[in-house]
Amino acid sequence: MTFRTKLLVVSSITLAGAVALTTGAVSILTRRAFDRINEQRRTALVAQLQKQLEVQSRDVEGKAQRASAYEGVFRLAVEASRAAPDLSAHYDDARPLAEGQSADFLDLLQPDGTIISSAHWPARFAYKNDWQIAPEDFASPTAFLTRVPVPEGKAAVAMVAVRPVAVGEKKIFVAVGKKLDATFLASMGSVPGTRTLLWLSPQEVLDANGPVASPDKLGSLATQAMQSGRRDAATIQWSADRYDSETVFPIPLTKRGTALGVLLVATSLAEQLRLERSIVWTGVLVGGAGILLGILIGWWATERITRPIASLSEGVRAVASGDWSARVPVSSADEIGELASSFNRMTEQLVEQRDRTVQAERVAAWRELARRLAHELKNPLFPLQITVENMKQARDRHPEQFDEVFRESTSTLLAEIGNLKTIIGRFSDFSKMPTPEFESVDVSALARDTAKLFGPQLTAEGRVPIELKLDLASEGTTVPADPEQLGRAMRNLILNAMDAMPGGGTLTIRTTAQQDGVRIEVSDTGAGLTEEECARLFTPYYTTKSHGTGLGLAIVQSVVSDHHGRISVHSAPNQGARFEIDLPARRAS
After folding, report:
1. 409: how many CB neighbours lie within 10 A of its CB?
2. Fewer CB under 10 Å: which end of the chain, C or N?
3. What per-residue confidence (pLDDT) applies to 29?
């Protein structure tokens, strides 16, 4: 498997895995968010239920109070207070009273609980009331929940209030009830996505719209809640459609430990299930797109990685075949780009090493030429000088034989001979450059001492003064060098800069500590040099001046080369020139 294929596979798997993890995380967070929303909905609905029960309680208490104050009830109480009263004629008195109060249940009771009249079940006249009313409830000023039997053989959960009607020491009681039914559930209002159900028996479950289909599905949940009093929610699926599901939360209705029924808060799961299904399908689609995108990105990434590597490999082969000018394009700033930059620096250093070798060989050749030229010029120089001196003596002895023109010619001849001697001396110096004797040299201190030697010349009378600026590093400028030869190179550079500023200017000498050595800079503000002049400046005999031998900078080049350093010039016409010498911090082995 190639490197590109590996990258493609890894990138595709990574993207697909990331999409899968994101989809799972989103699904879990969504489910938790819905759980929080459902909890808030249940809380709101339970609070509404409590509020509505309080409203119903106050309503029933008011109905019971008004019924007990009815004149017919008082007359009934008077009659019931007599000895051996006959109350059979009053078996139907409760019906109009219940209708007048809009009560679902109303019983007129004797103190022992015997029914005098029942509005919803007149046939129970003279029977005991079985509304599960405890003796303390007869004295309770507040309404309470209880179960009330009805003629159909069922039972209803009702909010009931009992009020006494007294005649002397005798009493009868008015029991008024309002059942909890679909109307009560509808009066609670609605919370989006939720509904309230009332479980009365396994066959009778109501919601705000009436009886609920398939009430048996709630049987086990309601029975468990009534028996244990626990409120454990359950998920009920009403049909084969999985979206027809609800989370049902039971609230047992009890009276002194006796179960009356169960209120059920149901929250629809349709929205949650649809959203989870949408997330899953979105994850599948995004995962597929992620794999495709991973292939495209992987191909693009591998192209960006393998192409520079291929270019680097070609550059290595080119250098290995002898093409030291080979360069690799740097297309990025990452590790691959750094590798390419390092390769280019390596080839540049190889070229520089080759150039230094070539320059050293060239300097050696010029030294040999200078040695031979000096030898050739020395032989005729001494006889020439003797001849001139003899001619001068002859002129002194026989002045009539020499005229003014001869004397002038003699002076000119002697001056030229002096120039020849100077040239010979320069060539001799160039050819006799000794091997450097290395020692630790503080370049900044050497530069400062060298600059002091030229102080008088920079401000001498008869010439435009030159300003000297020293910018010398205080630390890290000690290198192995020959102080005499390095000082001579600095002097040549300073003389060269002074010659470049006949009209005055600024001479700057700067030293800089670097990680791998020291840099010496000598710059001027003269007329500058062209690119061609910069390229030929260190060639022996080449000079841009009207005077001189052209060996000064060649000597500087020789000294720098012997110190395993590098010299360069930076200049442009009318912008001055800057010579830079880089010396290594360690002596080359």
Report:
1. 11
2. C
3. 77
